[in-house]
């Protein structure tokens, strides 16, 4: 189509933020920090490379995902431990906070709950910001690497994509078949992954993660959580992610319990207040 005469003027219209988030409930970060200082480690799970593992975190506890041994990206799923139909909602989290998450931001749950599941309380990669390519870390724009897309694009049958790793971990945790477990797997928080969209074509890109051993992302559990973390077959995601060719390392998940009363008047957030009458 030929450009209309006012094309430049239309393009020059200033954007508006879809969801101004200045009315979002603000987490009490000072309280969380004080509670974290009292916390003792109560559990840990080491996620093997090209595999996934589940872990449980009670409301009011903290969990930390750490890089160990070498740079490694992780794909994180979260569910309400008492109702697996409530799970992390990547798309709405992106709409509320932006394409990448950091300290003070939250992982929000699916409808009809739409409440904070976890609040990020520490991020050792918060210095990275947005690089010259438009890349940043801990994205909620990717989905998870999966064997279906690989089959679509290359006819392959690779079995250690994050989707399959998460499916096996959930099946083992729930004691159900892979077919029963698979629908629970959902779009992830890409922990430590460095991603963005190319400016010229708008395509999703990845680049070598800046994460190094010792770096971590830490969360406060706002509700009882079941988590599953996959150590992506892409390793640091500097080249590809649907094969065994990348160098891969484990990821460590640790759970911390604050002292009784350390959380003061904190209460686990209720489900969303919409009355659900949907106009009838
Ligand atoms: Zn992956």
Protein traits:
280 residues; alpha+beta; seven-stranded antiparallel sheet; six-stranded antiparallel sheet; 6 helices; binds zinc ion; DUF1989; DUF1989 domain-containing protein
Question: How is this structure best described in words?
Answer:
The chain is of the alpha+beta class. It has one domain. The chain is built from six helices and 13 strands. It has helices at residues 7-11, 29-37, 90-97, 147-154, 162-174, 178-181; strands at residues 40-47, 52-57, 62-67, 74-80, 83-87, 106-108, 116-123, 136-139, 189-197, 204-207, 216-221, 225-231, 251-257. The strands form two sheets. Strands 2, 4, 5, 8, 9, 10 and 12 form a seven-stranded antiparallel β-sheet that branches. A six-stranded antiparallel β-sheet has the order 1-13-3-11-7-6. β4 (74-80) and β5 form a beta hairpin. The longest helix is centred in the middle third of the chain and has 13 residues, at 162-174. The chain is globular and about 65 Å long. The protein starts with 6 loop residues before the first helix and ends in a 23-residue tail after the last strand. The model has no long low-confidence stretch (mean pLDDT 96). Zinc ion binds at residues 75, 144-145, 161-162, 232, 234, 241. Pfam families: DUF1989 (PF09347). It comes from Roseovarius gahaiensis.
């Amino acid at each position: 189509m030929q450009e209309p005469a006012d094309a430049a003027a239309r393009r020059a219209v200033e954007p508006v933020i879809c969801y101004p988030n200045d009315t979002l409930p603000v987490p009490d970060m000072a309280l969380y920090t004080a509670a974290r200082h009292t916390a003792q480690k109560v559990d840990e799970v080491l996620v093997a490379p090209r595999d996934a593992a589940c872990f449980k975190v009670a409301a009011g506890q903290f969990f930390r995902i750490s890089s160990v041994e070498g740079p490694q990206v992780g794909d994180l799923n979260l569910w309400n431990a008492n109702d697996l139909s409530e799970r992390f909602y990547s798309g709405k989290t992106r709409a509320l906070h932006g394409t990448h998450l950091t300290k003070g931001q939250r992982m929000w749950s699916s409808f009809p709950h739409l409440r904070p599941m976890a609040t990020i309380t520490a991020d050792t990669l918060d210095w990275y910001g947005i690089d010259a390519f438009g890349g940043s870390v801990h994205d909620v724009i990717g989905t998870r690497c999966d064997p279906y897309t690989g089959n679509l694009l290359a006819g392959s049958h690779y079995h250690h994509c994050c989707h399959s790793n998460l499916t096996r971990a959930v099946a083992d945790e729930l004691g159900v078949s892979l077919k029963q477990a698979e629908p629970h797997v959902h779009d992830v928080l890409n922990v430590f992954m460095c991603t963005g969209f190319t400016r010229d074509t708008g395509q999703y890109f990845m680049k070598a993660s800046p994460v190094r051993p010792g770096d971590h992302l830490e969360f406060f559990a706002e509700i009882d959580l079941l988590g599953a973390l996959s150590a992506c077959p892409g390793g640091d995601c500097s080249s590809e992610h649907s094969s065994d060719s990348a160098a891969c390392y484990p990821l460590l998940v640790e759970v911390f319990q604050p002292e009784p009363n350390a959380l003061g008047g904190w209460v686990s957030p209720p489900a969303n207040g919409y009355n659900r009458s949907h106009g009838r």
